[in-house]
Design goal:
OB fold (Dihydrolipoamide Acetyltransferase, E2P); BirA Bifunctional Protein, domain 2; eight-stranded mixed beta sheet; five-stranded mixed beta barrel; 13 helices; 25% strand
């Protein structure tokens, strides 16, 4: 097992003269007359450790096995490196090959691979420079999320993966059943004695805990059976959903802005070399965009104001900008990139296009919803103040043709100590696309689930 002080990221910071053991996988080997140069990486750093192996120190068959993809342990001494980009290199004394990789069949040779090609070898793509950077950022982002909420006293709640209710009312659900397929279903005979699904959101269950612990958050997998095979859609993805009691729409906006800024700051500090790599190879404006988010004060406008701005823009949009139509990506990007040049929070959307649980405004036409829009990606957070009034919520459920009996417990929260409360959802992979500059959501998740594809 590699110890923390043995990771290559740690060895690269050590002083010349120290005896160390490095373990990892070979990126490349090049040979001169008297020495072999091996680039070794264990996934902990975007920078390889150069191993200098004197010719004749190990048997020829060992050298022959040191090919791209092979796994090694190298014991030796750190010495000052004359090369650029590294302070030290490892002068080898002993080398052990743990597992060879036939260079004729190993698909991840030293050359530039397209992202499409790397998706076809998903079991090996984490060893590439690109996906090394992406998944180190993913790890740092997950840690940053927990740190943000834990530092503020939020309770982490595990909400169910199998649910009997649809939080969104969209109907695009994966059913969970043990009944024999092809026969008319009798759900009273099913495993749970009722119709159940893979969850589309942990929000409703999180509201239960918000009514007991005030501030809570979820961070778990969600599922959508939406047949959209686009660069922005997955069938399985992770969501972060905080819920806050005694919180209104303004407090919700304040938390969302602080949350995004904190995540970007933490990841930029933890993964600067990875972000620089991704800026160089994938998104030239990445670091500039991230700095802009951290250092800007988010613009806040209503949906009605946003529609008026779009109509006055003089732009020939593909989709309608009439009041009552939902904002599309082209509208969101105009607002964030051209009109304001920074993130924008849009509030108070038409009641007809939003979910049943969003608090109805006094105008009878809008609800206390909010979307946080960011340059380059558009909507990154969606949320609302939740409807805390029992009679109004009951009416909204009926209006949307949803079965009241399925939400008896949700209505009960309004009967027994109900309180104004609010929350939002952040798609983990959507945030990763923003942080890494990757254009396809399949490239920021280890094992993408999309229509027609469920490898591994």
């Amino acid at each position: 097992m590699i110890q923390p002080d043995e990771y290559i990221r740690s060895l690269l910071k050590r002083q010349p003269g120290e005896s160390v053991t490095a373990r990892g996988w070979v990126k490349t080997r090049r040979d001169s007359k008297n020495v072999h140069f091996i680039q070794l990486n264990d996934g902990s750093s975007p920078v390889d450790l150069q191993v200098v192996l004197d010719a004749g120190l190990v048997p020829p068959e060992t050298v022959a096995a040191i090919t791209t993809g092979a796994s090694l342990s190298v014991e030796g001494a750190l010495v000052a490196s004359p090369g650029k980009g590294q302070a030290v290199e490892l002068k080898a004394r002993t080398v052990k090959v743990h597992g060879a990789a036939n260079p004729e069949t190993y698909p991840l040779q030293k050359k530039k691979h397209t992202l499409e090609t790397l998706r076809e070898i998903g079991h090996l793509r984490p060893r590439s420079n690109t996906f090394g950077a992406v998944f180190r950022v993913r790890n740092a982002l997950a840690f940053a999320i927990h740190k943000f909420f834990q530092d503020r006293g939020f309770l982490y709640v595990h909400t169910p993966v199998i649910s009997a209710s649809d939080a969104e009312g969209a109907g695009q659900l994966f059913e969970v059943t043990t009944l024999e397929l092809g026969k008319p279903p009798d759900f009273t005979q099913d495993f749970f004695s009722r119709k159940t699904f893979l969850t589309v959101s942990g929000q409703l269950e999180a509201e239960i805990f918000a009514h007991a612990f005030a501030n809570v958050y979820t961070f778990g997998p969600t599922f959508r059976a939406e047949n959209s095979n686009t660069p922005r859609h997955l069938a399985e993805f992770y969501m972060i959903e905080p819920e806050m009691a005694f919180c209104d729409l303004k407090g919700n906006q304040d938390l969302a802005e602080a949350f995004l800024k904190s995540l970007v700051e933490q990841v930029m500090e933890a993964c600067r070399p990875d972000l620089e790599f991704l800026t160089k190879w994938y998104e030239p404006e990445l670091l500039k965009t991230l700095d802009g988010l951290v250092n800007s004060r988010f613009e806040r406008i209503t949906y009605t104001e946003a529609v008026a701005a779009l109509q006055k823009s003089g732009k020939n949009f593909e989709f309608s900008t009439e009041w009552g139509a939902d904002l599309q990506s082209e509208h969101e990007r105009y607002l964030t990139e051209e009109l304001f040049g920074k993130p924008v929070i849009v509030t108070d959307y038409p009641r007809a296009i939003k979910a049943f649980y969003m608090r109805a405004n006094d105008d009878g036409q809008t609800v206390g919803a909010m979307d946080v829009l960011a340059p380059r990606i558009g909507e990154i957070i969606g949320g609302s103040q939740r409807e805390e009034r029992y009679d109004v919520l009951k009416q909204r459920i009926a209006e949307q043709g949803m079965p009241e009996e399925a939400y008896w417990w949700y209505l009960d929260l309004r009967r027994f100590g109900g309180v104004e409360h609010a929350g939002f959802g952040l798609g983990f992979e959507r945030m990763l696309m923003y942080l890494t500059g990757m254009k396809n959501i399949r490239d920021v998740i280890p094992f993408p689930r999309t229509p027609g594809n469920a490898e591994f």
